[in-house]
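Issue: copy button drops trailing tokens. Both records pasted manually instead:
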Amino acid sequence: MSKTFSRALFATTVAAAALGFAATSASATALAGWTVNNSIAGGGFTASLKSGTVATLVDTNTSQQVDCSVSSASGTAVNGTYGTGAGIAKITSVIWGSAATPCPGPLGSSFQASLAAGSTISINASTYSGGITSGSLSGVKVNLVGDTILGTCNAVISGTVSNVTYNNATNELDINNGAGLKVDSATNCAGLLNAGDSATFDATYKVAAPLSITFS
């Protein structure tokens, strides 16, 4: 075998090995991502307020707040591994308060709220540590109806919610003074809510069946 041929063969072998290593590294990178493990077949989930807690909506311009002791949510979190945490789970139905148990507000007012028709709230994962995923909610749009001293109040609140965490150990979705909401419109709301006001939301929901979100 000539020296020239040997050198060419050696160079080809080295190049092939390098390409193989690059491909392996790329494959490993591609496999990294967010993994959803849902115990419910079909990927559905339901959640309700953690026992002994309330969900609190605050208009940060008027400093008025509404507290709900009854709230539930449902949606989808489909098993799989995803390259991005955006929309890792979806909330398709939310209820705050009920006819039997409305949410009390200031000046003797009471409210109920639900997700606007056709709206879906995305649960977005951004960081992960020790079984806890941190992120946000986006696509929020809710219709708020209240009984106030002026009569029936109708308001629409939309935007995003920050400071959201999900704990695999407790199956709890916690929203800690989540900012990013805005009052789109408010009619006959006695000055408790006004169009253009900012709002925050605070609540802890417990998912009914085991659901985990991890990152690796």
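Record 2 (pasted manually too):
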Amino acid sequence: MSVRQLTRGVIAVASIGVLSFLQIGSASATGKTSAYHLGTEAARVNYWSSTDDFRVSDTLCDGFSSYAQYQRAGASKQTLRNSKGCHTYADFNRSFTGGQTIKYRVCVSIPLERDNCSGWKWDSTG
């Protein structure tokens, strides 16, 4: 194998690594927030402003379900529920008009007690 062939191989492998990194990076959520129960993360919501997608995750095997709430400026509060159980997630796609202010949070639904909720996270729609 010549030095030129070896160099091309190294460049090709490096290029694939860079492309893989860019694809993963662009798929990352623009925002997220978590709710805790007994000091451990129990629920998480991720939001992608470019596609208006939400992912509501139940991150703790505690027997409680998780839900997210969101509200756009001038609109009513909406709830997205994940009742599938421990270590699951539910995806929700919304089609918002771009450039709107939106806030969202995630909660752990605890029967007979006040639900544990994260603080509101502010973002803008895509």
